[in-house]
Design goal:
By secondary structure, this protein is an alpha+beta fold. The protein is 36% helix and 28% strand. It contains twelve helices and 20 strands. The strands form four sheets. The chain has an eight-stranded mixed β-sheet. β15 (219-224) and β16 form a beta hairpin. α8 (306-325) packs antiparallel against α9. It starts with 6 loop residues before the first strand and ends with a helix. The structure holds flavin-adenine dinucleotide (FAD). Residues 10-16, 33-36, 47-50, 111, 135-136, 168-170, 174, 194, 274, 293-295, 301, 304-308, 310 line the site of flavin-adenine dinucleotide (FAD). Flavin-adenine dinucleotide (FAD) is lined by residues 10-16, 33-36, 47-50, 111, 135-136, 168-170, 174, 194, 274, 293-295, 301, 304-308, 310.
Amino acid sequence: MAKSDPVVVVGAGPVGLCLALALAKEDISVVLIEALSDGNFLDQVPRAGSNHPTTLAFFDRIGLYARMEPRGLIAPKFQYWDRQDNALIAEFDHALLKDDTRFPYVLQCERIKIIEDALAMAQAHPLVEVRMATEFVGFEQQGDAVLAQVKNAAGEIEIIRGSYLVSCEGARSIARKNLDVEFEGFTYPERTINIEVAYDFRKHGYTERNYISDPVEYSNLFHWKGPPDRWRIHFPTNIDDDENELKRPEALQKRLQQFLGIDHEFEICGCNLYTVHQRVAKKFRQARVLLAGDSAHVNSPIGGMGLNSGVHDAFNLADKLARILHDEADDEELDRYERQRRHVAVTHTQAQTIRNKRLLEERDPAVRRRNHDELRRQADDPALARKFLLRTALFESLREADQIA
Ligand SMILES: Cc1cc2nc3c(=O)[nH]c(=O)nc-3n(C[C@H](O)[C@H](O)[C@H](O)COP(=O)(O)OP(=O)(O)OC[C@H]3O[C@@H](n4cnc5c(N)ncnc54)[C@H](O)[C@@H]3O)c2cc1C
């Protein structure tokens, strides 16, 4: 087998970039293919950005954390609120994890900042060849290699030979479709509206990360470092709401005014509408082609788990590919990648994000009361609160995956 062939990584999102940098750190050469160009790479809608302690430790392994920290906000706490009563239900503090991690907090640092820094690091790394403005269109597997077909900036089709190909292309993965792998799960009928606003919600008692339960209009509220210093708030919308009407400046103002119960003219920095899917690919591997991140699983953003669990895929896979390519393991290790990370996607990420949404949107008053009492009980007991945080910050999923042979 031609072990000198690079690993072909498709997609310079957070998952592809972390994978490329982690492989390069192990002396493995990589070709990283990205459809966007240097000119439009940063023109992407706001998405993830709550980075859990486990993920920060991975970022630190490739030298990315030090670049992110000054660009983000350290958020040790998060809160659950009841909008009906305008009351705080419970607060969890990552300080309880001080003996479990060097990073007892979430770093609020947006995906766009992460990929900007990680791309600069990849472009400067001698073992990573970054091919911007290059679209992956298909592949062919051979016994000892995989041939990626790409369309370059000039519109020409090129073939790139790799030892393995990892699709980090995001939810619309062409590799997953070409492999004919089912993307099992469902799509929520309603869409979510995301409003970015320069306003300090701490004046109303909120902390940097907040989950707000309400039977009519639940929401999530997060703080991001500027300029301008911004907060992002998500609300569900009705299935047949008209997009233009939802995004009308007066409609956005009204939603925010009703949320806070104040008469204020907000400085709105942006808004977008998105659909939420809960899906996991039936397989994460077929011979020399692997799926990671959103290409392998997608979920609701409530709980901030998509980017985080995708980055965990990247490091799990990088360790295994490095051992295989350094002749320290055979390539059945990659089936273990699938067993471990698919288990996490189904049992942790999907289950937890579905539960999170149900908790916030619950309509039955008795169930709501029970749920809120249970959150209070866990927050008030340090041992239970630590256990809760080990789950939400993804320590538990990493430990469980480690035990899978
Ligand atoms: C509104 C919103 C909020 C979210 N908030 C959070 C959060 O707080 N925390 C969290 O953990 N997750 C969150 N997520 C989820 C998170 O954004 C994704 O899980 C994460 O970005 C996935 O990373 P990825 O690298 O797998 O894919 P992506 O980020 O989608 O990156 C894929 C890359 O591949 C490139 N690409 C695609 N097709 C091709 C092709 N054919 N050829 C070459 N390149 C290609 C794309 O241009 C892109 O650069 C949120 C998502 C949404 C929608």
